[in-house]
Amino acid sequence: MTNHRMRDELDTALGGLIFSPSMQERVRARCGAEPPPRRVPLRLTRRAAVVLAVCAALAATALAVGPTLWGIIQGDLGAKTPYATEVPALCEDQGIRLEVRSALFDNKIAQLYFSLQDLTGDRLDGDTQLCFGLENQQEEGNDEMPWNSSSVRQLSYESESHTALFVLTLNGWSTKNRLPLQFSGDWILSGYRTSRDYVMAREDGLSAVPLPSAAADNGTTVLLPEPARVAAWEAMDPDTRPVFPITAVGFASDGKLHVRARISLEGVIWSDIKARVYASEEAGCGVYYGDDENVTQTVVEDGIDYRFDSYGPSDLNRLMQISVEGDYSVHSAPVEGVWAVNIPFEAIPSRDIVIPGELRLTTWVKGETIRADRISLSPLSMTLYCSDLQRDNWVKMPNYQALSVSVYLSDGTAVAPVYVAGNTPWAAWEFSEPIDVDSVTSITIEDQTIPVP
């Protein structure tokens, strides 16, 4: 009976073209072997080699049909693969399963690989967007931001199993915080597309002189299309031109700022299109968006006319940019739900090196410097921490990207890491291949060498 269930599970997995790490673990368990450790080892032990040999034929079959999710993750991680950990976390809502597959927490860069699978239909595709949130409770005494920025990139979509794979990257991740990270989403949109067209008020010669206008069916004043703008759009490459182009922009006969956009929703399942004004509070000072409450939309023959009641000819010198921006889908409407999982935190071990003496680094301002205090080294990256960042009422802006950095190993090899991220008090560089931290003898930043005991 056990063998039948096992075969059914494997047939199901292979039919979906996914021989996942969790499935491999179940196969190992049924073969009488112990599950592998959570961290993928650098080298296969004899026990692991025997266990993997049992599953080799099945894994090879799955790979012959198509790459597994884990294979795609490995391809994205590259040389960092041995330092990733499997994260057993999943949840389901609205017939869509969110499953965390793997995570990597380095000094200042964290990567989280997760999949979305539609269990009931075909609401995902190769252009799927997830509106997500992140929460991380601060530990007492930790005043570092948990992260500075985040981004999500889709890696693949497998149509037969309706599974999309993503990687979430956190820049500026704080390894001081050992509490779990909560990852959540509240809507999913496939077939995602975006369009943006804009006019620069000064550069494009926006004038206070009223443009040709007319009355719409409801009596509202609207702009008429400007033939030159229409002709310019029609001459553009259809594959790259804005989908919702501006066909007229300026002041109408009613004395208000208008922007008219051609909007065709043929083939569009869902859309969210807005017109915005970027303006200064006074000429040349600050930038802000026009309030949606002060925008009146009127349907016209070829799209929509947007009237901005807050702006008249007297505001011309404040205007900077007028845009029409739209998110839309050609596949489905957003799926709203609640998907939330907790991600345990397991940092890659690193070594802290206090910089002796006074190591000063220049900033964008000539003659201005900051102090380099310490370096954190992991097999994958180097993070530099600095201080003396305040000058009068200003925060100094280090030019980390311009720094020349070399790491020297005991065999005489010089490794040049690549800058990947930074904020005012820190910057991070990654190695193209993992290094042995214990073999580092010195680090050179610009022309200053730091010995590593």
UniProtKB/TrEMBL annotation:
<keyword id="KW-1133">Transmembrane helix</keyword>
<keyword id="KW-0472">Membrane</keyword>
<protein>
    <recommendedName>
        <fullName>DUF4179 domain-containing protein</fullName>
    </recommendedName>
</protein>
<keyword id="KW-0812">Transmembrane</keyword>
<feature type="transmembrane region" description="Helical">
    <location>
        <begin position="48"/>
        <end position="73"/>
    </location>
</feature>
